[in-house]
Amino acid sequence: MAFEMYRRAFLSLLLICLVAGLADAQSNGVIRGQILVPSVRISERIQVILQRSDGPIVSRGFSDSLGNYEFRGLPPGTYDVVVNLEGYGEARQNVGIGTGLAGTQIVNIVLTEKERERNANDASSSESDVVDITELGRKYPRKVLDEYGKAREDNRKGNTARAGERLEAIVKAAPDFFAAHNTLGTIYQKMDRYRDAEREYNAARQLNPRSSQPLENLGSLYIQEADASRKTDSSKVGKILDNALDILDEAKKLNPRSVSAHFLLGLANYRSEFYEEAEQSFKRALELDGRMPGARLMLANLYIKLQKWDNALQHLDAWLSDNPRAPERVQILETRAKVADRLRGAGK
C-alpha cells in the first residue's frame, strides 16, 4: 500500500469513548500501483492523471523509473486513473476510495499498443510478448496481461473469488509476474487467508527485492492477523506483531520516504504498546505527508491514551481543518469536545 490496501477492514473507523481512545483507523485516501507497458525504457517516467469520475482533474503525477505511481490525501469518492502514452491506447481505470486502509487501493495499469502501430506481418501479435517495467524486462504473453486486467476488474466489482481464481491461474502460467503475486496476496488477505497471502507477498518480494510494497503489504497482513488473533488466541499476538515490526522496519529502510511504511510501523508499535516508537513513526509519516489524516487520528488517539489532552486537541483540530467534508467529521467534533472538557478539567 500499500500504505496496499491497502479491502482491509481491520482498520475501519471506530470512534469510541475516551477511555478506550480515539479511532484506531484512518481515512487514508491512497491510490497506488504500477504501469505495465510493452517495450518501454526502464528509465522512462510516465504521466498519470487522477480525476474524479464526475469530471474534474484532481492531480497529475509521474511514475518512477520502475513504473510505480502514487496519489495520497484523497477524500472518499470515485476516481479514474488515466494514462495516455504516445503509441498506446488510453488506459482508464475506475476505483472507489472509502475510509480506513480500505481507502488504500492498488491500481495496476496495463497499456496496449495501438493497432496501427503493430507489425501487420506479425501473425502472433495477439500473443506478442510484453515487458513489465517493474520487473526489469521479464516477458509475458499478451493473454496473461489481458487476464490480469480482467482479474483487477473482477476485484473492483467485488467478485473477489473470481479475481482470485484468475490470479491463481496467472501465477501458474507466469510465476515471475511480480504484480500478479502481489495482487493475489491482497485478494487472499481480503479473504483472511493469512498464510496464502503471506506466501504471495514473499513471492513478490523475491521477484522485486527493490520494492517496499510487498514488505508493507506483509506488515499490514500481520497487523490484521494480530487483531483477529486477539479474539481467538491472544497468546499469538505478540509474536505476530514482532513479525510486523521486523518487516516494516525493513520496508522503511528500503524506502525511507514511504509514508505507508512509517504509518504501518507506527500502527504495529501502537498495537505492541510501544508508544514512544509509535509516536516517532506517526510523526515521520506526517513529515512526509503533512495532510495524512490517518497519522493525525492515530497521534490524537495515542495522546488521548497517554492523557496528553493538549497534544490530542492539536491533532484533532488539524484533522478537522484538513478534512472539512469528511463523513466522520461530526464524530470527530464530538470527540474533540470530550477532549476539550478533559483539558479544562486537568487545568483546574
Q: What is the number of E strands?
A: 10
The quaternary state of the protein chains shown equals single chain
The CATH architecture: Alpha Horseshoe
Total of domains? 1
Radius of gyration: 21 Å
**In what range is the share of β-strand residues?**
5-15%
Structural class: alpha+beta
Biggest sheet, in brief? 4 strands, mixed
Distance between the termini: 45 Å
Helix and strand element order: EEEEEEEEEEHHHHHHHHHHH
Outline the low-pLDDT stretches. Answer: 1-27, 39-43, 115-137
Assigned CATH superfamily: Tetratricopeptide repeat domain
The total count of helices amounts to 11
Shape, per Cα inertia axes: globular
CATH topology type: Serine Threonine Protein Phosphatase 5, Tetratricopeptide repeat
Q: Mean pLDDT, nearest integer?
A: 79
Helix content: 40-55%
Set out the fold topology.
Blueprint: E1 30-36, E2 47-52, E3 57-62, E4 68-71, E5 77-83, E6 91-97, E7 104-106, E8 109-110, E9 129-131, E10 139-141, H1 142-156, H2 160-173, H3 178-190, H4 194-207, H5 213-232, H6 237-254, H7 259-271, H8 275-288, H9 293-305, H10 309-322, H11 329-346
Parallel strand pairs: 1-7, 1-8
Antiparallel strand pairs: 1-4, 2-3, 2-5, 5-6, 9-10
Helix pairs in contact: 1-2, 2-3, 3-4, 3-5, 4-5, 5-6, 5-7, 6-7, 7-8, 8-9, 9-10, 10-11
